[in-house]
Design a protein that fits this description.
This protein has one domain. The chain contains 10 helices and no strands. The protein is mainly α.
Length: 215
């Protein structure tokens, strides 16, 4: 039995890093990731906060006009699916569509399952932002997103090497700051704090050179 050469061993070690996620792992990641995002949304909604991206747009529509968060979130994501198909492929776009539908559904159902007798707005901003960041991290690592800015951020990372978390942080901060005309200044500041927490989770943990699992 011949021994492997150092070159063969190195190639095998590299190949072992690119482990493909089985379908059941992708399904669980979609479920758990969207559940975490929906929990963060429940924290924000109860505290009157908002965040960036298409989630932030859905919050604004809900606060201003009383429209259903889930419905607006679904509709506002539709144009971004074209970018997803064009640049990220059908598999990514289909998983993203499933994630968007799950968040839309769970965001409507979670307040019926979880009630808050008391919730600090600061805690809601920090923990809600962290929960959404962790949920997005799970989705990103299984080649999915929540559409909108998530698709753009992942495209910028894959195409130009920019960190997805850093790209999303810049866009989200702009959207949250624009909400000064909708919510009170103190809620805007707390929303910025939550957006920083969310994107800090992504910026630290979601790097193309650290995680190479594929779906």
């Amino acid at each position: 039995m011949s021994e492997q050469s150092p070159d063969d061993e190195q190639l095998n070690a590299v190949a072992a890093l690119f482990v493909r996620h089985p379908l059941w792992e992708d399904a669980l990641a979609l479920l758990f990731g969207t559940a975490l995002v929906a929990l963060g949304i429940a924290f924000y909604a109860h505290a009157g906060l908002l965040t960036g991206g298409t989630v932030g747009i859905a919050f604004l529509a809900n606060y201003q006009a009383g429209w259903s968060f889930g419905l607006v979130f679904c509709l506002v994501n539709l144009p971004f699916y074209l970018l997803g198909i064009w640049r990220m492929g059908w598999g990514f776009t289909l998983r993203t569509g499933c994630a968007v539908l799950l968040v839309s559904l769970l965001a409507e159902l979670t307040p019926q399952w979880v009630a808050f007798a008391h919730l600090s707005a600061v805690y809601a901003a920090l923990f809600g932002g962290a929960a959404m960041g962790l949920g997005l991290l799970m989705l990103f690592r299984h080649r999915a997103s929540l559409g909108g800015v998530n698709i753009l951020a992942l495209y910028m990372q894959e195409r130009f090497g920019f960190r997805a978390g850093a790209v999303q942080m810049a866009i989200d901060a702009s959207i949250v700051l624009a909400a000064i005309f909708v919510v009170s200044p103190d809620k805007v500041l707390l929303s910025v704090l939550g957006a920083v927490m969310l994107n800090l989770v992504l910026a630290i943990n979601h790097r193309a050179d650290r995680y190479v699992g594929v779906s």
